[in-house]
Design brief:
388 residues; alpha/beta; Aspartate Aminotransferase, domain 1; Aspartate Aminotransferase, domain 2; 2 domains; three-stranded antiparallel sheet; 12 strands
Length: 388
């Protein structure tokens, strides 16, 4: 969005310009020149949607009961299944009527949540490296996005937030396992977060799409901790665990007042996701855990192939413990956008420039593990050669 656009609101003009559009043009130019590009810039799962889920959608499409608008009562079965899934997994029973809400993807949910729980001029705390849509959603809601510095463990240093910013802060947005850094947070971290949020009267928003994509340790849910339901809302997605990115389905769980505010904000905007896709979600949440784990092992193998290829070529990279990304610090203060553009042109590999993820991402690039192991290994060798 250009700043000269006569019809653009102040909120839209405040949205950060996207380096991903620049990368998209670079990829298109390379392909137009006849080059084959290994695209590792977009974090969309390339694995197939489980067949049982497709069968549910096919059946639903032939059912006239699914063809109309889907109001709140239409989401009841889906939310009951979401609450049951959460209780099976984490041992906490939630009320699907007041503590759960259907989303058209967690990205939509987060954008509407910022509109629902904060007023223009208030502040939202976001780690200095975060999923790009967080920054845009904050601008669209008229909020000041306050970057929170990261420590060596890639977790936010909440004590570093200036006091004057905290006075206007309304909520804190987090995401673990993390995109793009692949950092994992344990319950001790979440206890510190909740204590901090209570001191400063913040709503904690946890975006948790990578809950299943963990290779070492475990992904946790802060909702189970004592006092969490008083000030926490958690967003879940079907895009990563079940490869349903294009179907746009998710759900929110947590504090009943925040859920009610989010429902009110969504009411004039959408009629919920198509019932057939909700039925896919129900089937997904009922899949045996080993089915999901099987696909996680595919990404583990990809991670290992990329890391080992780069390490063998002399690039010091750490092995990610979770998610579907490798976050690489470039040497010698190298410009991440220039390097990413050069990688497309000279190495035929598309990466995501780090600054697209926030001010702390400058000097980094992100690899998405969305190609077979042998292709990732080749990409790793090409990038190592370019760095050399």
């Amino acid at each position: 969005m250009t700043h000269e656009n006569h019809w653009a609101s102040k909120r839209v003009r405040a949205m950060p310009e996207s380096v991903f559009l620049l990368m998209d043009r670079a990829k298109s130019a390379a392909r137009a020149a006849g080059k084959r590009v290994i695209d590792l810039s977009i974090g969309a799962s390339d694995l197939p949607v489980p067949g049982e889920l497709i069968a549910e959608l096919e059946s639903a499409a032939r059912d006239p009961a699914t063809w109309g608008y889907c109001l709140k009562s239409c989401t009841g079965r889906f939310l009951e299944e979401a609450a049951s899934w959460y209780e099976r997994r984490f041992g906490l029973a939630l009320d699907p009527e007041s503590q759960a809400l259907s989303l058209i993807g967690s990205q939509e949910g987060l954008a509407h949540l910022l509109l629902a729980v904060a007023d223009p001029g208030e502040a939202v705390l976001i780690p200095e490296v975060a999923y790009p849509s967080y920054w845009g959603a904050a601008a669209l809601a008229g909020l000041e996005a306050v970057p929170v510095p990261l420590g060596e463990d890639l977790l936010p240093r909440l004590e570093a937030v200036p006091a004057e910013k905290l006075q206007r802060a309304r909520l804190l947005v987090l995401n673990y396992p993390n995109n793009p850094t692949a950092a994992v947070a344990d319950y001790a971290f979440w206890e510190r977060v909740l204590a901090f949020a209570e001191r400063h009267d913040l709503l904690v928003v946890h975006d948790n799409p990578y809950i299943d994509m963990v290779y070492e340790g475990e992904a946790v849910s802060p909702l189970v901790l004592e006092g969490a339901l008083e000030r926490t809302i958690e967003l879940f997605s079907f895009s990563k665990s079940f490869h349903m990115g294009g179907f746009r389905l998710g759900f929110a769980l947590g504090n009943a007042e925040a859920i009610a505010a989010l429902e009110a904000a969504k009411a004039p905007v959408d009629f919920n996701q198509y019932l057939g896709i909700q039925r896919m979600g129900i089937a997904a949440l009922r899949l045996p855990a080993d089915r999901v784990l099987r696909d996680v092992q595919v990404f583990r193998g990809r991670r290992d192939a990329l890391v080992e290829a780069m390490q063998s070529a002399g690039v010091p990279v750490s092995r990610p413990k979770a998610s579907m990304y490798l976050w690489l610090k470039l040497p010698n203060g190298m410009d991440d956008v220039k390097f990413a553009l050069s990688a497309v042109e000279h190495a035929g590999v598309a990466l995501a420039p780090g600054r697209g993820f926030g001010p702390g991402g400058k000097g980094y690039v992100r690899f998405a593990l969305v190609q077979p192991p042998e292709v990732l290994a080749e990409a790793g060798r090409r990038i190592a050669q370019l760095l050399d």
